[in-house]
Amino acid sequence: MPYYERQHFSRGLLIGLFFVALAASGIALVATVRVGELWLSAVIISVAMLPSLLGFLLRLETRVEDGVLSVRLTPFRPRRIALSDVVRAEVRTYHPIREYGGWGIRWGRGGMAYNARGNQGVQLELKDGRRVLIGSQEPERLLAAVRAGG
Predict the structure, then answer these.
(1) Averaged over 44-63, what is the pLDDT?
(2) Which of 34, 70, 143, 144 is deepest in the core (most CB within 10 A)?
(3) Are residues 86 and 128 part of one domain?
(4) Is residue 71 part of a domain?
């Protein structure tokens, strides 16, 4: 049973982040104009805006097919997990900020997480004891595909 899901980061979160970066950039501009270092303002504005602008380009793609679960946060390389290495899988609700420090490719006390939005996912436990959480808007379908072996 092949499975594919594409998720984008929450537009509301990205817009909020953009406006925070815009405010910080305005403060930086005023501060650097006062000291006559406009080049520094350009650097600060670029650094402040970069995360929110990148967020609009990033997407999380999850595939399950031919005995492999592949999860990719573009533009990064995909991670492939052989379904034969999964000893346990379950749907669960999680707290992205509290457990993993946010969204994206994250590490926390509970292992690694790949998530783009929401608080639902499939928790995998691998043969070597590592835990991987895959965020999903369709966690039941993802779990069914993992259990069916793709």
Answers:
(1) 76
(2) 143
(3) yes
(4) yes
